[in-house]
Amino acid sequence: MPAATNFVRGKTTLWILIVFSLTVPGCTNIGPTGSVYTTPKTYVQFINLPKINPKGESKTKYKDPNKTGTVLYDTKGQKAKQLSPYFTVSEFTHSGDTSFRYARINKKLVNCLANIRAYFGAPININSSYRSWQYNNKLIRKGLKASKKSYHMSGAAADFSVKGVAITRVADIAYKLCGCGIGVGVANQWMHIDVRGYSTRPWGYSKKNLENLKSARYHHRKQCGKGRRSDEESIFGTFINEVKPVLNDLEKTIEKFLKF
What DSSP character marks residue 99? Predict the structure, then answer.
């Protein structure tokens, strides 16, 4: 009997673990598991590039609206230079297909991504990093979703993906390796990280990202607490704000109908 009882208990425990893994966000993601050692390392102490002190028109063109103090560098002839064991200068000086000679590069961002890269042992593809204030305004005029205070203009943000790793898994590890002072935005196949220096809850870019957003917010609350609303969250929040009045009106209509 004791053997049979232990067998039943063992099977019960197994089923509990299976159900738990299916219900907790992020537990069903596949991909490289990474190292269990999550103590962050400092890969970059300083950035050895020519510094620029913009004046006149250039001061506006390359201004940092967040006033982070991140230095503007001249990267001419420096694109292939290694910033860390994993990244070159060119990876932090472009927005999509547009490359910038003068760019801000925040060493905290480089260290954050380097730690994520080292943890998973998988290549990181940076889709967008620095973009100038002038270029960011151009995107806004075109009707594209870009924040007026985007940390990309501060050289403190990157949109990227880790090969073979689910976005929700990366978001979880990002908070462990880069701390709670980061901004995290999630899409389906890529995510945004910036080193803004204060805790803010994750945001999404469309209603198609709801599952990833739910998981990212779960990991954020678990490790960092509530966090404040970010400017970027309004990009996703627009959809929610449009739906709320409709639902409120519908609720009032139903209440009036039930009174008859």
Answer: E
